[in-house]
Model the fold of this input.
Amino acid sequence: MAKLQPVRGTHDLLPEEARRHRHVIDVARDWAERYGFAEMATPVFEFTEVFNRTLGDTSDVVTKEMYTFNDRGGESITLRPEFTAGVVRAFISGGLSQNLPIRFFSAGPVFRYERPQKGRLRQFHQINVECLGIVEPQADVEIIALAADILDALGVLRDCTLEINSLGDAESRVAYRAKLVEYFSGHTAQLSEDSRTRLQKNPLRILDSKDEGDRAIIVNAPLLADSLNEASRAFFDGVRRGLDMLGVQYNVNQRLVRGLDYYTHTAFEFITTALGAQGTVLAGGRYDALVETLGGPKTPGIGWAAGIERLAMLLGDPALVRKAIALIPIGTAGEARALKLAHELRRCGVAVDLAANGNISKRMKRADKIGARLAVFLGDDELARGVAVLRDLLNGAQREVPLGELIETLAPAPAAAPAFAPSRI
Ligand code: ATP
Ligand code: MG
Done:
């Protein structure tokens, strides 16, 4: 019954997995807010044009990995293979360029037609941040520091190393491009077919090739650092000084180039050896020309994305947070009482598992499995005496509580402020 399997390269987020997943997003969102990033969401699909125009027509993503189809109206549509292009499109179409600088946080599914393997899926999920409107290295430093803080808060920073490089400004890249063409032109016979195409269209891209033959030639290619002009060098120095000041550790990797066309100046990746071949957990860079490429006003930008599945694989077993209450009625009077009590408790913000079926030991096992912190027994005898029995499931301590005091005993004090304050206009 192959049809009953999830599609190759996709997976279900069953509760255990969903919990890790949410933990990653919650931690990232919390830190992003501290850095002034506002959460936003864009549609899962865009006009194909949005990605074709920005990612570069020799990038792996555009040439091989996009899920593109014509919809019923004949429009070419693509499931987003990354967030940046869509976020920038939203920035432009939402007319947000008056509010600079502006910082966005997003999380959600991303689609790429890749060969599925450990850490490489066709539908995966990313957390993504973008900062628009800051030309100075300060933005690069802050966004990298945010990445480090999130990885640290997840407890995975110690498994990662940060690599940074400068791709320089447009002028530096023109100079570098010329050197690369000269170098690779002397080795065309050994280059892969893909890289021969790249040599015509975008020689820089060859440096990102994963082909082994290509890699052997890339080792001796000229270094970008030697083509950086004064301004690009000064910018990169500024980024490094900032990171040093904040104590963010990094290695300069002169071979680091990013897979997409829109990057300028700073490129960076957090890499781990703990995941085998798929070692990049978080990657990003500066893209000062992207907004213009999409038809918006000239606006500098920088951002990064991290794969949630790869991060989730690095997490230790997150502790089960024990917060639910297991209500265990014994007898018909108890059952009626339990239904009402569960309802009241839930309205007071308490998670309640009403365990009315099966024998008591089965129900106790279930309470443990769902991570309940307390079991409340409502037996006929106790009800007749006007009490319920509370058992602390962590230490086994047991006590009786008068029925009239149950709610205040079990429900936490009400939250101080509503989650959504009425907006002041
Ligand atoms: P890779 O070199 O592994 O193909 P990439 O350069 O294509 O990565 P980015 O486009 O920078 O990746 O995406 C950012 C992050 O998203 C990656 O660092 C990784 O954690 C995650 N990611 C990318 N592709 C996949 C995938 N197919 N499955 C799961 N996670 C992925
Ligand atoms: Mg890739």
Summary: The chain is about 35% helix and 20% strand. Confidence is low (pLDDT under 50) at residues 421-425. The CA atoms of residues 203 and 421 lie 53 Å apart. The longest helix spans residues 15-34.
